[in-house]
């Protein structure tokens, strides 16, 4: 099944008005070379509105990095809800990034609430899952991935994956320069698809699965060539236009070959 490629940049807590403008200008210029793929950028929330203006004439989609788990607006100091993200031009939002899970105490139940709020507010959640190094070394990878997925399936139902993206991000590969091997990435992605297939085969075949964790221009093509890898969620390498565009170009080549 042709799922198409999505290349997403998670800028994390980086940038300034000036550096963002330069980065987005570079991306807008370069992305015209990649018409066969979808491209998404997730800047820090305070810059979303200005990013929207930079992207207005571009196919690049905009996403938030996080959202509130509350079902209504109100007295939640510091929080941002799905309707606000929509208001400033977002179509997507990251949910359950490992940095949110480990540094900010988001457990599976919290991630599931955020996922529900994202979809209720009309956003496509990019559900991030992945194991730590200790979990991989103790052969818990599949159990962790199943637990993280099942929490969302229990809360939102498998049909929710019609309007969601899943990002497999092994925690040990994030920002470490240590990428999962092609075999490790494919095995994890096939396992994730299998968990969804236990609930609904058709949806498992259509949901986009991104790989994240030290994706760079020089390893993107091999990772994206895996049967069950439909693109990437890029951290550090999304902060420089040439590097991010080179990753997009790797996906573009594969997407164009699929379409041919
Ligand atoms: P790096 O690409 O910097 O390893 O980060 C991956 C990531 O966490 C994207 O969400």
Quick structural gist:
Strand 1, helix 1 (17-30) and strand 2 form a beta-alpha-beta unit. The protein has helices at 17-30, 48-54, 82-87, 98-103, 108-120, 133-137, 141-156, 182-199, 201-206, 220-224, 241-259, and strands at residues 6-10, 38-42, 61-64, 92-95, 124-129, 165-168, 208-212, 231-234. The chain is α/β, with parallel strands linked by helices.
Could you describe the 3D structure shown?
- It is built from 11 helices and 8 strands.
- The protein has helices at 17-30, 48-54, 82-87, 98-103, 108-120, 133-137, 141-156, 182-199, 201-206, 220-224, 241-259, and strands at 6-10, 38-42, 61-64, 92-95, 124-129, 165-168, 208-212, 231-234.
- Strand 2, helix 2 (48-54) and strand 3 (61-64) form a beta-alpha-beta unit.
- Helix 5 (108-120) packs across helix 7 (141-156).
- The longest helix is centred in the C-terminal third of the chain and has 19 residues, at 241-259.
- The mean pLDDT is 97.
- The protein binds 1,3-dihydroxyacetonephosphate.
């Amino acid at each position: 099944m042709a799922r198409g490629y999505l290349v997403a940049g998670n800028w994390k807590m980086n940038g300034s008005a000036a550096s963002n403008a330069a980065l987005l200008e570079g991306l807008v210029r370069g992305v015209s070379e990649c018409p066969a793929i979808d491209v998404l950028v997730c800047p820090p929330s305070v810059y979303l509105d200005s990013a929207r203006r930079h992207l207005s004439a571009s196919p690049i989609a905009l996403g938030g990095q996080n959202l509130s788990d509350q079902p209504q607006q109100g007295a939640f100091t510091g929080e941002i809800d799905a309707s606000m993200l929509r208001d400033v031009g977002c179509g997507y939002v990251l949910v359950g990034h490992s940095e949110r899970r480990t540094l900010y105490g988001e457990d599976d139940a919290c991630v599931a609430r955020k996922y529900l709020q994202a979809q209720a507010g009309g956003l496509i959640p990019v559900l991030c899952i992945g194991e730590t190094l200790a979990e991989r070394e103790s052969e818990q990878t599949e159990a962790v991935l199943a637990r993280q997925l099942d929490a969302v399936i229990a809360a939102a139902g498998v049909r929710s994956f019609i309007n969601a993206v899943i990002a497999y991000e092994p925690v040990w590969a994030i920002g470490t320069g240590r990428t999962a091997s092609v075999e490790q990435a494919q095995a994890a992605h096939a396992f994730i698809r299998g968990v969804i297939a236990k609930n609904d085969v058709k949806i498992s075949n259509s949901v986009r699965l991104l790989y994240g964790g030290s994706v760079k221009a020089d390893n993107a093509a091999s990772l994206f060539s895996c049967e069950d890898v439909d693109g990437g969620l890029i951290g550090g390498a999304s902060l420089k236009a040439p590097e991010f565009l080179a990753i997009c170009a790797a996906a573009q080549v594969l997407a164009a070959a699929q379409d041919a």
